[in-house]
Here is the input.
Amino acid sequence: MRILLQNIHKHYGAVKANNGISLTIEPGTIHGILGENGAGKSTLMKILAGYIRKTGGEIVIGDAPASYRRPAEASRLGIGMLYQEPLDFPSLSVLDNFMLGQKAPNPPFSKGEAGGISAAEGEIPLGPPLKKGEAEIRERLSDLSRKFNFTLNPDAPVRSLTVGERQQLEILRLLAMGIQVLILDEPTTGISGEQKERLFQALRKLAAEGKNILLVSHKIEDVALLCDNITVLRHGTVAGEMRKPFDTIYLLEMMFGFPPDTPSPSGAFPGKQLLVMEQVSASGGRTGLKNCNVVIRQREIVGLAGLSGSGQELFLRVAAGITPPSHGEIRLRDMKMNGKDYHAFQQQGVIFAPSSRMEEGLIAGLSIAEHFTLLERQKGFWLKRSASAEEAKRRIEKFRVMGNPETPVQSLSGGNQQRLILSFLPEEPALLLLEHPGRGLDAESAHWVWEHLQSYTERNTGIIFSSSELEEILMVADRVLVFFEGNIIKDLKTEETNIHELASAIAGRIS
Amino acid sequence: MKTFFRHFAEIAVMLAAVFAFTTLILEISGASAMEAYYHIFRGSLGSWVRLGHVIKAWIPMTLCSCGLLCTFRIGLWNIGVEGQMMMGAVFTTYLLRLGAGSNMPVLFLIFAFIAGAAGGGLWAWIAGLLKTKGGVNEIFAGLGMNFVAQGIVLWLIFGLWKRPGIASMSGTELFPPELWLSHLTAVRFSPAALLLALLAVVLTALMLRYTHIGLNLRAIGSNPRAAYLLGLKPGRYILLAMLFAGGLAGIAGTIQVSDVYHRLLPAISSNYGYLSLLVVMLSDYNIRVIPAVAFFFACLNVGSIQLPMMLQLDSSLSGVIQGVLVLATLAVQAWKSEVRN
Amino acid sequence: MTNEIDISILLAGVIAGAAPIVLASLGETVTEKAGLINLSLDGSILLSAMAAFAVALETGSLIAGFFSGAVIGATVAATVAFFSIYLRQSQVAVGFVLTLMTRDLAYFLGNSYSRVPGPQVSPLPIPLLKDIPFFGTVFFSHNLTVYTSLLLIAFCWWYIYRTRAGLELRAVGEHPEAAYSRGISPKKIQMLYAACGGCLVGLAGASFSLCTKPGWGRPQGAEGTGWIALAIVIFGGWHPVKAAAGAYLFSFLQVLGIYLQGIFPSVPAQVFQVAPFPLMIFTLLLMYLAQKESVRMWAENKVWMKAVLKFFSGTAPGALGRAYRQD
Here is the structure.
């Protein structure tokens, strides 16, 4: 089946997750959709799978335009999706999961025979008792498993399966339903190398049978290894397309934008040791954090590079005391900080600024001024509203936030919210931990924000920040830590590296 | 002006719906609706004495509502308010039993109030600890604690504190009159209790609007994770809000014992705790509206006592009206947010 | 000899007395399995008890009585579900308001049926089976309501765990988004099972006023049952058979209370009614603790602690109380 996506739009309020995407998927091919987090890949695929409804555009399947609004209708057309967040039922058994959503093998009982609790119950055919059709379904599951060399115990609860096995189960279920177009959203994260090998073999087999496979990923080497065609998405639009054989560097440039010429880090001279991590590990996220050994000094600006979910998010949270480490030692200056919470870190001058603005950074319902009241830790019983309003006014002018002290934060635009969060930073912190500080800012305000942040180093502040834009890191950081699968695989001075080296490193290739 | 009219229209539509429903119910039960409304009105606002009864019902409901507003602010459903009131009543009864026959009744009354606040606060604090340390949802913890409190009240009335000779549902022995809150003779309610309730309204309003505690409660209720990153400790404020709500509910219990019944009864809380939850919901969590809604609820409760006598109807009509009102409000709110999107 | 008769009669009393609580707990289990909390149980039971009694009295038909009880129960539960699913209001708030309102509505509308003699379900010992020693008395000397409650335990278990529809019901309560992606409509399923569960709750009410505590009045005697059923659902770990066991345990405690009162005359019977609630809190506390890594490690070498944690490790349906939103 040939699939055409034409000018697909999906808008959430002012945010354009998909902004006019067109692409063609040829039958019998494995088509890669490549892009960083937030590029709009998942949204596009969920639209194709009928899980979310598009704002505009057209989908053509075969020769006819198709309009469908539900996953069930999409699967009737032969489209099935393996979602990034597994949409399965952890407490149910493998067999139950396999069965759910499939048609019963035998015609259902008549209403009377089943004997409902009420009249209304007759509306859903009870189906035969599960045991009756079970042998047949068991057979179907084990046949399919054998075909793809998967090993699944039908009676185990799905909760006890590994991520890879849960994926295998979903793939088998979709195939049993007669899927012709299989979408896989980030299937290679969190599975073992061996499972990945099996998955890729299965996908090649399916493509050879004439099925369409869509592989969504931000992992360039996976996509390049498996796919016949690749479409790169960036900021909700198509950044480019490529056929086999692939040029990795060219793909990376499409993903991240074309690099500017000259990086210019602040060049400040590093001072005394500020944060020391020795053999620190922590669990959480997709990969956890493994055996981190890092020293951060005063006046240093350190960028954390890596594909999203490679451990840099966890690193910042461990450094802030929000996530406790499972092993290893954290020291601030010479003080051991293990077992202390973020508030204790805060007292030592460690400030964390999260990237998810409305989830962690700001409090919906409170005005800008009220946020400053919370930050100021005013003494006394009564609120000093005028004092915080003045402070708020000063800061929003300085940080160019479009709003006034009484504006409720949820009504600000994303870029303004981001600048507001940055305006919360105190005057003389010891260490700033910033999650994607430049995200959502246009080039000019990003430039201004970084000038401001670099001025902190004159007051001996150290800065650690994560970013998905490699140019940003090269431009402002003195040092870059490259994360891959929870490990720090490179620790480089920015002046001694370039975007090509970093791009290869974040994909796990160290020369 | 336009929003005012829209507001007004909403309320009018809602009241009309509730009025129609209540009338229908009355017609089903074969009574004349107009007569019933007339008797409720006469029974609540028809004389100074009746108004006094209304105020007696208004006081505990207002106290509980003020406390509940704090727990709602931090995002908790403090359904345990009923039990907190009962425990306030129990602690008060203990103190007043000690005070019987002493020559310093006023001192014991003052201590009774403190004990009431402590009793209610303790009960709320346990529910708060179960929530913050034990991961038990405050609704189930609160409900469970309500029934335990009810059990304690019954056990005391039929056991430890039973009337000499006979233990019955009519409660413990009456306290000597010097341990009653003094009344204004014309209207038969205690000015001290009224003052306390008014004070609670003013203090709650000031606290929520003008102090750090109020802002912090709101911040944590809206987004506990962000509040933590901004330096607040959610667990501590949950306990604080629970203590405050429990304390006020406990004082309501004290007033029920020392002013209204002068003894401990099995139904000492008169359901006012649960009703207060409705009051706060109907007020849209606005302290300025709470006294008025509580007054309306008190009128319904007191006025409907006339129904069995005058029309052979059950007095629970008040509860039906109150419930339908809140449901209608929820439906209107849903419809409004639907329109907005 | 005499001893044996005593025990069988006592157990028969436990089974008969528990019938309405079993029905209500089963109903709430079904509703919560679909992810909805129906907090209106207590008032719902009273309103359906009143309706059942009034209808049975007016029509002279017990079947009509039970039917109207079931309809009332289903309607109230469907209201909670409707407010939650389609109006996006808090399940807890709506359920709570309905608890208070339906109770008062029952008292108000039932006023004229107060203390009126009316029809009631007559005993129907099953021939032959009732003559089996011991078991005959315990299981086969009851009325139809009690038999129904016993059969429904098995039926609910079979329906939830052994039919395709039951599988879909569990799927929706577990992960409505996943169910949606497989072509199951969570909204419809939740509405349906809220109503089904409500039906059972209504039957519980009807069996109070037509069987267990015949007649109507203020108070009827069924007050508090709804809250107890809610507690029992948690105690039973959302499993119909365990919930029924919880209901029998409670009924047993009540019967035992009568004996205990002989030993502790100062403790009124009402105090024993409280027993399920501390147990409920304790159950929830243990469920929370059983999930904690540190507690599990601590219990590792203690056999009995492990057993306790295993018993209480029943988990709530994944999406319980969380309203499903569709994009």
The first helix of chain A runs from residue 41 to 48. Residues 106-125, 259-263 of chain A have pLDDT under 50 and may be disordered. Chain A touches chain C through 35 residues (CB under 8 Å).
